[in-house]
Amino acid sequence: MGDGDFCHCSDGSLDLIVARAGNCCQTTALLGRYISRTHLQSPLMDYVKAKKVTLRYPGENTVN
Question: 3-state SS string over the chain?
Answer without folding.
Answer: CCCCCCCCCCCCCEEEEEECCCCHHHHHHHHHHHHCCCHHHCCCEEEEEECCCCCCCCCCCCCC
